[in-house]
Structure formats: C-alpha cells, structure tokens
Amino acid sequence: MTVPQSIRIERAHAADVPALIELLAALFAIESDFSADRARQRRGLELLLSQPEDRAVVLVARSNDGKAAGMASAQLVISTAEGAPSAWIEDVVVQQALRGQGIARLLLQELLAWAQRHGATRAQLLADKANTPALEFYRNIGWRPTQLSAWRRPLQEL
Question: What is the distance between the alpha carbons of residues 21 and 45, in angstroms, rounded to a whole number?
Fold first, then answer.
C-alpha cells in the first residue's frame, strides 16, 4: 500500500472547514452513535482549530489540487493512569474513492508524532463496533482493543 505522491498532510485551517464537514458527514453515515449535523460539526471544527497548537490539532490529507482527501484530529487530555498527557484521536476519515491507499495510516502517523512531541505517552480512539473495515485497519497498523467499553450521556438530560 503506497500513499499517492500527490497527497500531503497539513494542519487544517478555517478555509478547510466546509470540506471537513463533508468528510465528517461521510464518517457519521458509518457510525451508528452519531449523525451529521453540519452546524454542530462547524462549531466543533472551529473550536478545535482555535485551540493552542500544543492542545489540539486537525490534520487534512490534501491532494495536489488542494482538495481534502481525508482528515483526522487529536486532542491532549491528562491521564492519571499514565501520569502524563494522552492523545484522544477522532474524526479519522478518508474519501470513499481514496480508501485503501495508506492515507489514513499517514494521518495517524502524523497525529502520533504530534502527540509525542507534546508529551503524550498513549493514544486512544473509538471505532464503531460494526465498522469491520476500520477495526481491521486499526488492528493491522498496531492498535489493540482494550477491555473498556465507551459510555456516554448527553448533558442536556441533567
């Protein structure tokens, strides 16, 4: 699997937000826990992009024509288990037509390098249990499942 030479990984900017929203819509179409809401995705991306460089990053895989081929994001949280920052990775998605070419692997490599440069000693991510291609992809590049299960509760219910 060779990443096309026409792909480069860069930090996303405000001008990328519309294209990133479209990538997120494709991702959320796969994930049963989430649904696309372009206004929410815009707010979330703008919040991430406004964070200091040492707290969060949104990366875009860009083709030579400047179009977004894929994206991924990471944020640092403090892990009491690690006694150090830990990288929380989200939004790993590549355009359907470009999957299987190593773009997601490259995005993750860049996110992990960013996390290490900022003191993280662990990275974690979530993947939909029914997304077999994603689960196989993560396993094939060295990620391992844990014994933990993810839980969530909307705060509007409080």
Answer: 8
pTM of the model: 0.93
Tens of pLDDT, residue by residue, the chain (158 residues): 566 678 999 999 999 999 999 999 999 999 989 999 999 999 999 999 999 999 999 999 999 899 999 999 999 999 999 999 999 999 999 999 999 999 999 999 999 999 999 999 999 999 999 999 999 999 999 999 999 999 999 898 76
Judge whether 65 lies within some domain.
Answer: yes
Distances (CA, A) of 47 to 2, 57, 126: 33, 11, 20
Residue 71 lies in a domain: yes
Domain carrying residue 93: 8-142
Total number of domains in the chain: 1
Quick count: other Cβ atoms within 10 Å of Cβ 104?
23
At what angle are helices 38-50 and 17-30 packed, to 10 degrees? 120
Q: Cα separation of 105 and 141, whole Å?
A: 8
Tell me, yes or no, whether 63 lies in a domain.
Answer: yes
Q: Spell out the residues 6+ positions from residue 127 whose beta carbon is closer than 8 angstroms to its own.
A: 134, 135, 138
Residue 49 sits in a domain whose CATH number is: 3.40.630.30
Where do the DSSP E strands lie in 24-83? 56-62, 68-79
